[in-house]
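Project standup — Tuesday

K.O.: blocked on the structure for the chain from last sprint. Re-posting the sequence here as requested.
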Amino acid sequence: MKLQRVLQYTKDLLADTVVAGDSVVDATAGNGHDTAFLAELVGTTGHVYAFDVQQQAVDATKLRLEENQLDKQATVILDGHQNVKHYVSKPIKAAIFNLGYLPGSEHSIVTKPGTTIEAISDLLDLLHVGGMIILVVYHGHEGGKDERDKLLAYVSDLPQKYVHVLRYEFINQKNDPPFIIALEKMKDLP
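H.V.: unblocked you, prediction finished:
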């Protein structure tokens, strides 16, 4: 076995969790890569809800979906992930976050710890037992370390009999390499 890079490991976790017909969330649509990947996994009988606060990201995600003929099984929403419960009411199997900023865009528009934690809490309520929330934590930007620390404190306090929390990272890489936090729901939270 070889160690998987962060983004490949994320895809493998999602592929092991999501099947055709599932509902899932891309909490940070960005350029649409994860949204398209999830749309392939859920197939024509499932659905992806993708969120982003930037019109540029929404447009890029819609275009990627259309180019790959995946737009029928996805809804792209111009809103923050903290508002997920306004759009998604049925149970979901997985959610993915890429924290930080949209590559190739304004670096001052970044994810924030308060809205990210609010979204995670709401998504845990919607998540099927056995489902997974994956966060790819990019923390090299201004405010990134604060978000990282608050997020780690939050997930570390989740009760282990309800949620298993994994941190996957390469510790000898330079320049604030991204790492993964994966939350697997074991039981419904009280």
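K.O.: great, moving the ticket to review. The radius of gyration is 15 Å. Residues 113-126 form the longest helix (14 residues).
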